Amino acid sequence: MSENILLSFNGSKQINTEIKLTGSKSECNRALIISALSEGSVNVENLSVAADTALLIKSLESIELQTSDLRLIDIGPAGTAMRFLTAFLSIQHGKFLLTGTERMKQRPIEILVEALKSIGAVISYEENFGYPPLQISGPLKQTDATVKIKGDISSQYISALLMVAPKLPLGLTLEIDGELTSKPYVEMTLTMLSQAGISHSWEENVITIKPQSFNTSKLYVEPDWSAASYWYAIAALADEASIFLPGLNGYSLQGDSKITEIMANFGITSQFKNGGVHLKKEPKNLERKIFDLKDCPDLAQTIIVVCAALGHNCTFTGLETLKIKETNRVLALQTELAKIGVKLIEKNFSYKLDCSELHFPDQLFISTYEDHRMAMAFAPLALKIKSLEIEEKQVVEKSYPYFWNDLEKAGFSVVTKEK
Ligand SMILES: O=C(O)C1=C[C@@H](OP(=O)(O)O)[C@@H](O)[C@H](O)C1
Ligand SMILES: C=C(OP(=O)(O)O)C(=O)O
């Protein structure tokens, strides 16, 4: 049975709460792959409860458990895990059918598959060229150590290759072609590899990892900064806010920690003390007119909805990759923002917000397009709209299963409604 969520916030719009966030799904997915590659010498601490992480754990376990000639791995909607497993399975013994949701079958993977094939992997597209499902026969017999790879579509392809690189007989040299999108995620991969004892060199657009072994080590997964961004958005739309998020540090492997700097523009201060971050709201005139989100695409929906709700006409760049995520996020934002009279207009690789007709109806229904971030980015609008209905309660489970419980804890009225 499918259910929606009805949100409202009664009384004065003051938020005073402490929220313990789950581990970062990006860090956790890397830690799990690195641990599996290390064959037991790398341990993972503070696993995320994100559904995508649970799917990856189950998939890695099922590789061992299945005895059939063709082992089936269904990774559901987990894009990062899909890309990481494609490289991982290419170096395992056996034949695998790697598939996912209908949306996953529309998310491109050609760049990664062709890169792997160019060094000897045996992979075929089972339905449409360039897209999952994939049939992978491993282990690859390496024919080459150098790969030229486009950097501007998804950094996940590059992270996937880097993690298997130390296990390849010839190692790997990646020549990144064009601008690298989502760069902090590649840096996260390399840092976590080095925490597990793997060295690399990165000069200009060339990253090299030689064949080497993992050290005995522990990888600690930090709380999820992308999840934290929704609390910054809530603070930005509330009248008063004091929110403590334990476990988050000023230094993070996650590029989405940039939310502290971005939200400072909205008067949200971040103070790191007592083992976490304290968010406070201070009066501030909104001045910044351009936001470049190329390094932190998962913050795009959060920030765009906040700007729209504050009536801040500004411009966003670096949104190109949003079209191939859980849904076409640009189109989803345009459709849903239109419901409060806001336009997001594409022009010359940038997007301009036009809030001249912004209004808040008493009741609003938000469609979520199987995208957790649509649900979580629009939820803070309950501070502006009397009755906000968000489609598909379960959608948040992908990265933040306790999101609705946490909203309730912070004073929102959260009611489940049958569809
Ligand atoms: O490597 C990762 O963990 C991720 C990289 C990003 O994707 P792209 O590199 O495709 O932008 C991001 O959007 C995704 O949620 C997680
Ligand atoms: C894009 C995302 O995830 P993935 O690519 O792993 O499906 C996300 O979590 O916003």
Automatic annotation (TrEMBL):
Pfam families: EPSP_synthase (PF00275). Its EC number is 2.5.1.19. It is an enzyme of class 2 (transferase). The active site is at D298. GO terms for molecular function: 3-phosphoshikimate 1-carboxyvinyltransferase activity. Monomer. This is 3-phosphoshikimate 1-carboxyvinyltransferase.
